[in-house]
Amino acid sequence: MASPATRVHEDGYTPEVAARTAPLYERVKRVVPAIEWPVFAPDIDAILRLKRERNAVVLAHNYQTPEIFNTVADIVGDSLALAREAARVDADVIVLCGVHFMAETAKLMNPSKTVLIPDLRAGCSLAASITGADVRALKARYPGVPVVTYVNTSAEVKAESDICCTSGNAVKVVESLGADRVIFLPDEYLARNVAAETEVEIISWHGRCEVHERFTPADIATLRRDHPGIVVLAHPECDRPVVEASDFAGSTAAMSKYVAERQPDQVALITECSMSDNVAVANPDVDFVRPCNLCPHMKRITLPGIRHSLETMTWEVDVPADVADRARLAVERMVAIGWSK
Ligand code: 13P
Ligand code: SF4
After folding, report:
1. Does the predicted model carry a pTM greater than 0.85?
2. Which of 151, 249, 279, 312 is 20 to 30 A distant from 183 in Cα terms?
3. If you measure from the C-alpha of residue 252 to the centroid of ligand 1, how many angstroms do you get, rounded to a whole number?
4. Measured between alpha carbons, how far apart are the two ends of the chain, in Å?
5. Are 16 and 5 in contact (CB under 8 A)?
6. Ligand 2 center to residue 173 CA distance, Å?
7. How far, in Å, CA of 93 to CA of 114, rounded?
8. CA 225, chain centre distance (Å)
C-alpha cells in the first residue's frame, strides 16, 4: 500500500500536514485505506490546532468512525464512561462526538462547560420513542413503582426518573432499588434482557434501537455456519433470541474488554459497524467478521463537522435549569453505582 505522504496532494494536504499527521495514520492504517488519508488529514490537523486554541476536548463514543475515534478524540468509551468522564473534564469546551442525548448528559454532568455537538440532527430512535409526559402517565398508572431510565433518552425524560442506567450497569441499577418491580424505559429489548437476569419484575415501554432490532438469530446461525469457531458478542439492545444465540452480551465497553482480554481468533460484534474497526485497531491479532448495521445518527458526525463546530462554536447544547437539576440527580445516582459487567 502506498504511503499516504507520497500521494498527489488533495486540497489542504500539504507536505507539512502530511508530516504532522503521519504518526496518526500509522495508528489507523489497518482500517483506513491510504487513498482516503489525504482527504481526512487536513481536517484532523485543523481540529488538533482548534482544540488547543479553544481549550477543548473531544469525547467520542465507540460507534464513531475510526478516523475520528483514533485521531482527534481525547476520551473514548461507552455511554457510561462518557457520562462519568464528562464530569471530570477541566477544559472550557467539550465537543461530543456521539448523539444528542450524550451531549445533554455531558452538559448535565459538567454544567459550567460549553458542550458542542457537531450536528444537531444526531438523534436516537430510543430517545425519540418517549417523552416526559409519557413517563408521568406511567407513574400515574403504577404509583410508587420506581422508574429506571436508559441514558438513551432526553433530559426531560431523565428528569422524570428515579435513576438512569446504561447497558453497562442496567441489572445492577435495577437491583440497587430493592423493589419487587420497576418501570424500565424505553428499550423493550434491553428490558427483556435485563428481566432474564433478575428476579425483579420489569414493566417496559415499546422503544427500540433501529440499528440493533435488525439483527436476527438467523444472522448468528449464518455466521457460525460460515465461520466455525467464531466468537459472537452482542449488544443487549438486540432482541432476546439474538442475545441467547450469542456467546456474550454487554455494552460496547464490555465487548471491547472481552476482545482485549480473551483475544479470540475470530470474532463478530453484533452491533454498529464502526465498533469493529475501533476494536480492531487496538487488537491487531484478532480477525473481525463484520455483520454490521450503521447508525445513521452516529454517522452524522464527521471530521468536517467537528472542524466546523470548533471554528464556529456550534451547536451548543443546553438544558433548562429546572429539568437539568432533576435529570442530573438521576444520572449521578447511576454513576455512583458504576458498572455491572
Ligand atoms: P453503550 O452504552 O453500550 O455504548 O451503547 C450506546 C448505544 O447507543 C448503543 O446503541
Ligand atoms: Fe440510538 Fe441505536 Fe444509534 Fe445507539 S445505535 S444511538 S441506540 S439509534
Report:
1. yes
2. 249
3. 6
4. 40
5. no
6. 21
7. 5
8. 30
Among the bound ligands, the one closest to the CA of 294: 2
- Exposure of 334 by Cβ count < 10 A (0-12 exposed, 13-18 middle, 19+ buried)? buried
Give 228 Cα–ligand 2 centroid separation in angstroms: 30
Tell me whether strands 93-97 and 75-77 are parallel, antiparallel or unpaired.
unpaired
Closest residue by CA, ligand 2 atom 2: 209
Tally of CB atoms within 10 A around 71: 24
Lowest-confidence segment of 5-19, 240-254, 266-280, 290-304 by average pLDDT = 5-19
Q: Is the CB of 110 under 6 A from ligand 1?
A: no
Is there an atom of ligand 2 within 6 Å of 109 CB?
no
**What ligand has the least distance to the C-alpha of 214?**
2
Q: What is the pLDDT of residue 1?
A: 40
199-206: list long-range contacts, CB under 8 Å, 24+ apart. 200/174, 200/175, 202/174, 203/138, 203/142, 203/145, 205/129, 205/130, 205/134, 205/138, 206/129
Residue with cell 435485563: 194
Task: For 278-297, write each residue's pLDDT tens digit.
Answer: 999 999 999 999 987 999 99
C-beta of 272 in contact with ligand 2 (< 6 A):
yes
CB contact at 8 A, 120 and 100: yes
**Ligand 2 contact, 126 CB (< 6 A):** yes
Q: What residues have CB less than 8 Å from 48, skipping those under 6 apart?
A: 72
Q: Which of the ligands is closest to the CA of residue 251?
A: 1
Report pLDDT digits (tens) over 187-211.
999 999 999 999 999 999 999 999 9
Which cell numbers hold the place of 157? 425524560
> Beta 147-150 vs 93-97: how paired, if at all?
unpaired
